[in-house]
Nuclear pore protein
Amino acid sequence: MAETDWSSLTMTAEKLQANAITDTGMPSVTRNIRQLLDAAENLWTKVGVPGIEAQGNVFLCSRGVDAPQVPKQLEKLNSTVTLDTLDPKPDMDVDSFVKNEVQNAILSLIESVKKSNEDFLDERQKDTVNKNWKNKKINIINSFPGYMPNSSISGSNHTMPSITKFNSTNFGLNAHLDQTELVYAKHLCEYNQHVENHGVQTDILQSFTTAAEIAHDDRVNEMWKIVKCMSQIVPEHGSNRTRNSVTNQNSMISNARSYLEQRYIVFMKSYVKSHLSKAKLGGIPGTYPLVRSFVSVYINQYSNPSQLFYDGLPFWPLLYYLIRCGDLESVVRVLEKNNQDPELLNVFICIKNNHQYANLNNHGFTSSMAWDSNDPFKRVIYSLVAAIDVTSKHSDVVKTTDDYLWLKLCQVRNDKDKFTYPVLQSTILEEYKDQFSEVQPMSYFQLLFLTGQFESAIQFIFRHPKLRSHAIHVAIVLNEMGLLHLPDDFDEPILSKDNNEITRLNLVRMMKIYCANFENQDLKMAFNYYYCLRNTESEGITLFISCVADLVIETEEYDKMFGYLKPDGKKQNGILDSFTVSDTVKMDIIRTTATLAEQKCDLEVAAKLYELVGKYDKVIELANIMLSRIIQPDTYSSLDKTPNMKNKVFDYVELLSQRLIGIEINVSDEAIFTFNLLKSVFVFFEQYYNHKYTKAFDVLQTIGLVPLSVDQVEERLIAFKKYNELILRIVPGVLTATMNMLYSQYSDIKKEETKKHIRDPEQRQAQLEYIREKARAITSFTGRVPFQINSEVINHLVQTEILLY
């Protein structure tokens, strides 16, 4: 069956072959099926390997690989002797090696410096942002009249009091000073003028006391009396503890006690006058008759437990009120005649001689000696001379706040184990804060001030809008006397405490808040108030100069405050010229303002201010920066793209150039060269934008910034190395504009060629070659210039040059 099948298949194949069309243009098959079968059997016999290997041999043979010979070739390779490892030969190109090492070192150094600079700039930016934001927060908080910083009082928690009404002067509304504030300002201006003209300070305290009388307010008049009384101490200039010495503390205690005693005498006189029929005041003048009459009327329900009398009056009440009035001579005389307590007599003799309670020792007194008696006046007397039982308020005798404060001042001792002055200050600050804060602010001011807490007292009434003018002028007086504790950092809140727990008042911040009411309407008045800071420095500059500079920057009244230079170079005077301050101070103010304007990036204002003080090196520097910005506006913000900005800057530069003619200025040749070159480049771009290409090429030929022929390339490359960075930044723009002009000229010539009747084809071709030469010079210069030019600019230049052919 298989034979039949195979025979039939063979015949069929031969038949198909005979019938096949062979006229196809391809070579015909020269083998029939039988021949193919014989050839396959021969290959099978030659390989002699059955199975999959045979199929692989057939496949490899079709690819030209003799499979049976592969193992022999592998054995031959395996039997080859392995070569020994060769020693590497060192690189003998020393120049290349050193060059690579130097380049790597330079690149690593550049990268290191770049990273350190970036880190430094990031850190500076963060610090500046944090500081500015901190100042903003402090200014906003301090603008609220009811604000009381937590740092001013230690050991307790406080919240901001409720504010029923905003002070409109802090929110941009027009502010008008009242009559009292205007009188204060007038006296301050007169004081400043006298100080500047004569160098001798007048009595500013008396001047402000007189000014306050116009308010017709007894509380205000009393405030200035207290200030006058408490300021009678000797300041320790240059010390951080101006008022904290034992001598000054004792003086303040004596001054406060004397003031309270004198005020009580006034009260006695008023009381006795209202009870003349009962008082039986005789015609003998003096404190003792007054006290005797007062006791006879005032003590009505006194039981006199000790049954002691003197001159027909109870002994202990009479003695107490004599002490309360400060009549120590009468006290000693009464004790001598009474002869009840020799030790008590010795104590008051000592007090009378040195006018001090603070240095007393206990003299053998004990609390039992006072409290064994049922007489409240006797207990108070023993308590104040022996400083015992200081926590008792003695309410049977001590009726008013003045009485309480006077008693505490008598009980203060210099001994650390006793009732000390700082303890008294803390007690007054804590106990009466809530009682007087909103109801009677002036009474609380008096308590604080009489206990030597000047800063806290001033800050307290400064929070009240109606008392703010009085607070700022009290602060000015104390600062002029050197009695005010100011902070080291004037970015602190109005009231703060340092590491030594000394309360400090930020007079600068107070002054700025107060002057904000009128500084926009009256710069001259604000100037006079800031003049009070002339002796206070921060970071090497007086705060007077710093505050005036900040004021001018904020109001932007540069010409009004400082004046300006006319086109002919003559100066138009401003407000500053009307003051009698020295020319050095005026120059410092203008120079500081110019620096702030420069930091604010208001370069034109800064340049004009620097010109006022004759600092022409900064003027030319800023003028060069402004010119470089308007020459290539695409590199900068949209503000510099406007024609008005460009014309404004260039007009100022032209006026500056005119004013500099014939003037010797201390400016480097490089800066002057850069200034003149940038002006010419600005003119070039103006001609370019207006499509005045011929004039633009004339400018380029004059300044010689870029080559306009191949012969000029080397010369321009040598000059390029000497250019300032401001010039280098505009070179890519100049190259691009120049190439664009060349292409525009080339296009115009080509358009002419398309027209009929060309008169001079050779001339046209020469013009084209001239344009191509300029383009070659520019691209050659661009490729060799030692400056990194943007790849887009390079591509544009190269592609444009190609279009010229």
